[in-house]
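Students often ask why we bother encoding 3D structure as a string. The short answer is that it lets us treat folding as translation between two languages. Here is a chain of 178 residues written in the first language.
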Amino acid sequence: MDSHGSNYTLGAMAVYFFCIHAYRNWRPDHPRGFTKKGDGYQPPDHDLAEQYDLNAVQEPASFDDPIQREILVYSHDICTTEGWKLEAIGFDPGHLHVLISWQDFVDWKWVDQRLKNLLALKLNRRHDSPGRRWFARRHGAPRRVDDRGYFDHLVEKYIPDHPGLFWKHGMEIPRLEK
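And here it is in the second language, the structure alphabet:
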């Protein structure tokens, strides 16, 4: 058994590192620029950010401490139900990093979409907010993790260095208040 309580090697399964942004969190006027579908990376654009705000039908989402806890609990539940393994998860108010592994052939796009859809469903039920958007529609493709050193770096350094809640496999799952 390795230091993460696992008996597998990374080569025997798919392991992906997802970055999921909160809805309307990374605006076109972000100082580091933004990505526009079909056009790639773009420099900051204040006019486009204002236009996005005018077109928006919902307020931006933010992941505060209670929401982070809910997303952790629900992510663990979803992964368990789907036959995936939640390896680690970390947050800040604008995005979350999720490291998930699975053994059967499942396209990462399916995992990404299923996770976000089920998380939104569960969050909306809990907060009695049908139709609320929690996550950005598009974000960059996840990174495949097939190197043990990179896996360890993500779990031990990168993900925990974010300012919000951090959890990794083997830690206790928090309980949600009713």
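Translate back mentally: The mean pLDDT is 89. Keep this in mind for the problem set.
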